[in-house]
Design brief:
Elements lengths: L8 E5 L20 H14 L5 E11 L3 E3 L28 H13 L5 E3 L6 H10 L7 E7 L4 H11 L7 E7 L13 H18 L3 H9 L7 H4 L7 H9 L5 E9 L2 E8 L8
Parallel strand pairs: 1-6, 2-5, 2-6, 3-4
Antiparallel strand pairs: 1-8, 7-8
Helix pairs in contact: 1-3, 4-8
């Protein structure tokens, strides 16, 4: 693939558990997840031709070192509790790609990372739930890469930088998390929490759309942002953004999804591949 045809990188929200495939939980509004679901379904139109593979970094997999899944056929890991019985029978029969996994491993090793391999773990809900909407036919091979324990933002940005060349081979790099992830406050109508979420979301949007040098500097020091630690008491759902932004290189960042969810602002971002309308 030529450089002009390189794929974008994405940071997507994956919702709460199997939220798109069940009725809203008691006490939450009808249609709560409809806007997010519509955004996820729209992604193939913005990406264009079917990728050769998708590399996903989910906020639900942490290892002592970056770990690449080498399986040829995936099972699913229903890593959520307390949801309707039918959500534990959802299927998304995507294949793996040992060849792309080997490329991921090699790129990381060339850039100084110790990399582990894994073949048994199923795709967690940070992967199969959103991708049942994005590619419902499961017709794109998927490789999952873990976060590294310690959750260092600069390290995950560097991981993304190491993976940037994969974009020129038709690999879609996707960070799957949530731009706001404080589960104790998400569904609580607390004006102070809502305001903190708004401040952090505004900062994120300004950061993602900044020039690449400033973008990296601000993301590496995200804890200093207004509302940051209220939005992310723990950073595992934000760090997939660091990987996506690192893999973006010098490409422009855009806010491609923004919605108020139960009073909290939630966003999705795309880097590169055209000029989509800014939200």
């Amino acid at each position: 693939m030529t450089n002009a045809a390189r794929l974008p990188t994405l940071f997507i929200p994956h919702g709460g558990g199997p939220c798109f495939f069940m009725d809203p939980m008691p006490g939450t509004p009808a249609g709560l997840w409809d806007g997010m679901a519509a955004y996820l379904r729209s992604i193939p139109d913005t990406v264009g031709p079917l990728p050769t593979a998708v590399l996903v970094i989910s906020g639900h997999w942490e290892c002592a070192q970056p770990t690449v899944h080498f399986g040829e056929q995936h099972t699913l890991y229903y890593d959520y509790t307390g949801f309707p019985e039918h959500t534990y029978r959802l299927q998304w029969p995507a294949k793996g790609s040992p060849a792309v996994a080997a490329r991921v491993r090699e790129q990381l090793r060339q850039n100084g990372f110790d990399v582990a391999e894994e073949r048994e773990r199923g795709l967690d809900h940070g992967v199969f739930i959103p991708f049942k909407l994005i590619y419902p036919e499961a017709d794109v091979p998927v490789v999952q890469l873990s976060l590294q324990r310690g959750l260092d933002s600069a390290l995950h940005f560097a991981i993304g930088k190491a993976l940037e060349p994969l974009r020129d081979d038709g690999v879609l790099i996707v960070g799957s998390g949530m731009s706001y992830h404080n589960l104790r406050k998400l569904f609580v109508d607390d004006p102070r929490a809502n305001e903190a979420a708004e401040h952090f979301d505004t900062w994120l949007g300004e950061t993602v759309t900044a020039n690449p040098e400033l973008r990296e500097r601000r993301l590496r020091d995200w804890q200093a942002a207004p509302g940051a630690l209220d939005a992310h008491p723990r950073s595992e759902h934000l760090l997939p953004l660091m990987v996506a932004a690192g893999a973006a290189g010098n490409d422009e960042g855009q806010v491609v999804y923004r919605e108020r969810l139960a009073g909290k602002m939630i966003s999705g971002f795309q880097f590169g591949a055209g000029h989509l309308p800014t939200i």
